[in-house]
Amino acid sequence: MKNIVILISGRGSNMQAIVQACHAECWNARIAAVVSNRNDAAGLAFAQTHAIATAVVDHREFASREAFDAELARGVDSYAPDLLLLAGFMRILTPQFVQRYAGRLVNVHPSLLPSFTGLHTHRRALEAGCKVAGATVHFVTHELDHGPIIAQAVVPVLPGDTEEALAARVLEREHVIYPRAVRWLVDDLLRVERGIVTHVRGEAQWLI
Predict the structure, then answer these.
(1) Domain boundaries, given as residue ranges, for the chain
(2) Which residues are part of the catalytic machinery?
(3) What does the pLDDT look like over 131-187, one tens digit per residue?
(4) Which of 121, 126, 130, 158 is least surrounded, with the fewest CB atoms within 10 Å of its CB?
(5) Which residues face 199 on adjacent strands?
(6) Alpha carbons 130 and 117: distance in angstroms, whole number
């Protein structure tokens, strides 16, 4: 059985979707812990009500990103993670941290990567006149919001869309593709060759 550790900074809606899918679909995995960099993260209460261990490593208590990441890694490693998932974790991780969990560190980003890395993705999509937007699940590398793409979801950009309306539709799809991607990883169905993710059975629905 694989151990999954999830990092959050807020309510952790993607974390909740993963927890619910893990239980409903009886994955060969357990959510070993939910760890936050904020002690007021609402997602911690959700985890606790589901009997999941929680921990807080407050980034404000450290003088540097390197010191914070070192302590975060110590906490994460205490749960022996096979997979480490970022679910609204609002900290940029150092290359050393990323390398430590290479191949098992996964993120969901609210754009169709490689477009619109970083922040304000929905505003930028609207300003660019995009006709579609979406979300991407990807392996994390040292380059921000890059890394082999596991799955993507597409939503239409509607006339009169606001950032908030578009973000809400994209988030709904994140809640579908992130648990699906994690399930593939739990079942060892993915491989990465020259930066491209493939499904060992050749039957994955990458685009939703």
Answers:
(1) 1-101, 107-208
(2) 109
(3) 999 999 999 999 999 999 999 999 999 999 999 999 999 999 999 999 999 999 999
(4) 158
(5) 190
(6) 15
Q: Nearest 5 degrees, angle CA 143-CA 185-CA 117? A: 25
Element at 40 (helix H, strand E): none
Contacts of residues 42-47 at CB distance under 8 Å and 24 or more positions apart, as own/partner, are 42/10, 42/11, 42/12, 43/8, 43/10, 43/11, 43/12, 43/13, 43/15, 43/16, 43/87, 43/88, 44/8, 46/11, 46/12, 46/15, 46/16, 46/19, 47/12, 47/15, 47/19
Query: Do the domains spanning 1-101 and 107-208 agree at the CATH topology level?
Result: yes
CA 107 – CA 141 distance, rounded (Å) = 10
> In this structure, is the dihedral angle defined by the CA atoms of residues 70, 73, 57 and 18, taken in order, positive or negative?
positive
Give me the CATH code for the 107-208 domain, please.
3.40.50.170
- Predicted TM-score (pTM) of this structure: 0.96
Identify the CA nearest to 11 among candidates 83, 109, 87, 108: 87
CATH architecture of 1-101: 3-Layer(aba) Sandwich (3.40)
Longest distance between any two alpha carbons in the chain, whole Å? 49
Q: What is the pLDDT of residues 43-72, one digit of tens each?
A: 999 999 999 999 999 999 999 999 999 999
